[in-house]
């Protein structure tokens, strides 16, 4: 019966060496009554059940077929798998359950297997279920041989792999769908491994957007970040890093392509988590938004530019002005707005026509743009009105210079369509902060000033504040005549004696510059030194004074007068010149004057400006043998002990303390302590501006070394000074001759 039949099959399967006849005899004896037999029977039943369980619960159908492929056995679980009872299969071949095509394919395959009596495994084939559906079975089998070793067919198992196949197919399908999508779309899909940083997937759009081979994206995962422009890189990589903390990422950035072109990218990314919620991948889409960006830029450009001249329009001008004002305010600088209006442009327009009028306006824009500095802005407000923003103005004079250049440039003839003609311009200037604190008031004040320029005959400029006009004009005139004065040799050096207080002898002199102005007469340094310093003219002027003073000093030595020092004043600008020491050295060589007869005076303020580099410079000068004096000492409120760090020789007490000496106890106290402390530091002290005997008496008592002042002599031209030298050695009271060494 059935169980025994199964047992027989299973038994054979369990013990392949057991022959059928033996098996049958075993069963026969199992039907006997011996205890031994009963026990065996019991054991058999147990094992039978075990195998039945196995057979019924396994999803593998077991079968046997003869040498023609006809089923001779089939395990009962075939019913639950294919729907057929085993009997329905017995006597049929597997090919009877296949569609014709498949039957032929598998039949051919099977034919060769059988011919070679080979075992086979994992042969997948279609099989029809009883309900008509088509499934896929995977079958394995091995040849059977009878006792005589003759081939008796195949024995094997079929496993239903339809589900797996379907799942595989579905996966393949979905991957295919994704691939089609990802590869058709113009955006780059990317997927990265967190741990390794490797690129798991990059769609082919990488090639079109990045202009690099797709392979590179995989082989060099840094390729992507390296392609980003330096200006954007840091921001993007910081944002990318935040994805690892679970944030989503969205950035717009620029990449540079191997052909040198720049592309704008919009990149969005998302973290991908595993079942445990751990972020293990990052994925995203990058699109090329270059076109959109360009369009935006164009729109922005249109919104901020004048379409005719492509200059800034009013909106942009006001924006820039507001920014510039904020900056100027912060830096404590000036800024200027110029309002330009072409004179009689309407006439031009009417005579040559609008088209040429437009050409002219464009030309004006070009000429103006060529004039200003990088940070400045040229705008066209409309019609023939232009504005200039000078973002950083150091001196009002600079601004006026620009205005003059503008007038001059626009005055140059225009050739349009074969016609040559000239136009002029009127300019109004408003300055921040003098003439207004905000964009609106500066613009409207510049406008007002422009109308004044028109009223006063056109082709000129006017500052909004009238007083400024006069001051600046004067200042500019001074600057110009200073320059000319230097070229024409209008300067003189006066000498003021420095007298040793103890002996009353002239031991030195200070060189003080004078300007012999052709119209104004003798001009004092207070009037022109500040302008010379601002314009830098002090550098050639100071060098000239030094050369003249050294040459004069040498001349007096050569004439047989006892040698003296000559003190020359230095401005900060000169002091800051590179090669300053070299220049001094050259002057000395040129004059053939020993360095010890030259003394350089720097004011306390200059000395204290950049102490460290001053120390080095002063040390160098002193090594050459030049003496250093600190001028106007006491005015800078620096302590003498601080001064002691500087390598110097002489301290000059400022005039203001000397003036107060006999009237103000404070002045006296200050002068006294300067002398004491300077002596402690082994410095000599010169008192400046000594005008009275009382002052001199005080200084003598306090052992001040030298004096300089009207009491002895005013600064004098070289000839007068020489007269003084001839009578040298006399105090102002008794001008007794000294033991002159001539
Ligand atoms: P400073 O270096 O303090 O020069 C001393 C000034 O005091 C001189 O004025 C001199 O004429 C004046 N003075 C001398 N004795 C008396 C006095 O008893 N009473 C009064 N009230 N004044 C007296 P000066 O010549 O007008 O020069 C003024 C300043 O111009 C100088 O001050 C110096 O800072 C500058 N200076 C003159 N020449 C040069 C130069 O060649 N280069 C540079 N960088 N600055 C110079
Ligand atoms: Ca001086
Ligand atoms: Ca002085």
Name the bound molecules: ligand C2E, calcium ion
Which structural class should the secondary elements be placed in?
Answer: alpha+beta
Number of strands: 27
Specify the overall morphology: elongated
Largest sheet: spatial strand order: 18-19-21-22-23-24-25-26
Proportion of helical residues = 40-55%
- If you average the pLDDT, what whole number results? 88
Low-pLDDT segments, ≥5 res: 1-16, 729-742
Radius of gyration from CA coordinates: 54 Å
Strand content: 15-25%
The number of helical segments is 29
Q: Mind describing the biggest β-sheet?
A: 8 strands, mixed, barrel
Terminal CA distance: 160 Å
Structure commentary:
- With 742 residues, this protein is an alpha+beta fold.
- Helices cover 48% and strands 24% of the residues.
- The strands form 5 sheets. The protein has an 8-stranded mixed beta barrel with strand order 18-19-21-22-23-24-25-26, surrounded by 4 helices.
- A hairpin with a 5-residue loop joins strand 9 and strand 10.
- Helix 14 (345-352) crosses helix 15 (354-371) and helix 15 packs antiparallel against helix 16 (396-411).
- The longest helix has 23 residues, at 35-57.
- The protein is elongated and about 160 Å long.
- The structure holds ligand C2E and calcium ion (2 copies).
- Ligand C2E binds at residues 496, 512-513, 524-526, 529, 538, 542, 545, 569-571, 631-632, 655, 689-691, 708-710, 715.
